[in-house]
């Protein structure tokens, strides 16, 4: 598996409909059911429907209220804050521990699946006992906020929020699979906003919040498709980790990704992703982090950033 760590190349993959999330098998219970029922591992109509469920749930949560809750209760974990905002029980740390078990195994082959199966059953009960897509969406929001938002807060306390978002994204990478052969191309003249919003040819779009500022310029092909940004050494930005297959770039700065090939896409500089799968909880995560940081500043007004 090759890793694409240049922001332009990453945007090319994240925007291109030829790249999809690696599929997971259908399942009826446990962590495998959760993966098969959330938007995170879906594509096509199922993804559209399941993302809409997540967005609907998040629409009931005011980011400003989350920010205030995080500021007034800095001892609470983001999962506990989000549980309260979603109307779920949050007083017991058992809920947080259960979400952590699920989060550790959320991606295939990453955690203790038997323990995660039990934890998913407990979370289904917490959400009303019906294992449907709405319940999966609620659990998915808790799971995806769990480690990522806590990591964002911890890093932001050391470096500041903007630097943490830009330099050490809480989710360092994602994976995509090519559904057909794709050639990524370097060095086109138009610009795209790294937040994921396409610019008109020849125009730069404005950054909307701390997550979108201070990003490197990114090139897109005429017609709006992102291309590959060339690195300081003049070569397209693909980083290959030990044991991974090296990409083969031609003299024109092109690389071919074969059908069925899975690539690891770095999210450095684009911490909430881009394109149609951009994180729907972006505003909420930033709000929780801002609230937690304001509480830290109040407790230690003379220190830190």
Q: What's the number of helices?
A: 10
Query: How do the helices and strands follow one another from N- to C-terminus?
Result: EHEHHHHHHHHEEEEEEEH
Gap between N and C termini, in Å?
Answer: 38 Å
Query: What's the story with the biggest beta sheet?
Result: 5 strands, mixed
* Strand fraction: 5-15%
Mean pLDDT across all residues, rounded? 80
Q: Would you identify the regions where 5 or more consecutive residues have pLDDT less than 50?
A: 187-246
Care to count the β-strands?
9
Strands of the widest sheet, in order across it, are: 2-3-9-1-7
Tell me about this structure.
This is Cytochrome P450. InterPro entries: Cyt_P450_CS (IPR017972), Cyt_P450_sf (IPR036396). Residues 210-222, 236-251 have a biased composition (Basic and acidic residues). The structure is a single chain. The protein has helices spanning 7-15, 30-37, 44-59, 63-72, 78-85, 93-104, 113-126, 133-159, 161-167, 282-299, and strands at residues 3-4, 19-20, 173-178, 182-185, 190-191, 219-220, 238-239, 254-257, 262-266. It is an alpha+beta fold and 305 residues long. It has a domain at 24-171 and 278-299. The protein is globular, with a radius of gyration of 20 Å. Residues 187-246 have low confidence and may be disordered.
């Amino acid at each position: 598996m090759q890793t694409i760590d240049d922001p332009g190349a990453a945007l090319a993959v994240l925007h291109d409909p030829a790249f999809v999330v690696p599929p997971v098998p259908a399942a009826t219970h446990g962590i495998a059911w959760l993966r098969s029922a959330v938007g995170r591992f879906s594509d096509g109509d199922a993804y559209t429907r399941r993302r809409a469920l997540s967005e609907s749930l998040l629409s009931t949560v005011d980011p400003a209220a989350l920010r205030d809750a995080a500021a007034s209760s800095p001892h609470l974990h983001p999962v506990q804050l989000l549980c309260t905002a979603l109307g779920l029980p949050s007083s017991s740390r058992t809920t947080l521990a259960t979400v952590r078990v699920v989060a550790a195994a959320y991606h295939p082959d990453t955690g203790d699946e038997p323990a995660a199966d039990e934890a998913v059953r407990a979370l289904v009960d917490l959400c009303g006992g019906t294992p449907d897509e709405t319940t999966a969406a609620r659990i998915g929001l808790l799971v995806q906020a769990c480690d990522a938002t806590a990591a964002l807060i911890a890093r932001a306390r050391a470096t500041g929020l903007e630097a943490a978002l830009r330099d050490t994204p809480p989710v360092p990478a994602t994976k995509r699979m090519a559904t057909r052969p794709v050639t990524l191309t370097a060095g086109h003249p138009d610009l795209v906003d790294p937040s994921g919003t396409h610019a008109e040819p020849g125009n730069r779009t404005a950054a909307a919040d701390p997550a979108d500022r201070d990003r490197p310029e990114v090139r897109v092909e005429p017609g709006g498709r992102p291309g590959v940004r060339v690195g300081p050494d003049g070569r397209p930005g693909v980083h290959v980790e030990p044991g991974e297959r090296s990409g083969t770039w031609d003299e024109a700065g092109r690389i071919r990704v074969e059908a069925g090939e899975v690539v690891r896409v770095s999210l450095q500089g684009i911490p909430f992703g881009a394109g149609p799968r951009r994180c729907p909880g972006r505003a909420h995560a930033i709000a929780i982090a801002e609230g937690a940081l304001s509480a830290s500043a109040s407790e230690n007004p003379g220190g830190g950033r």
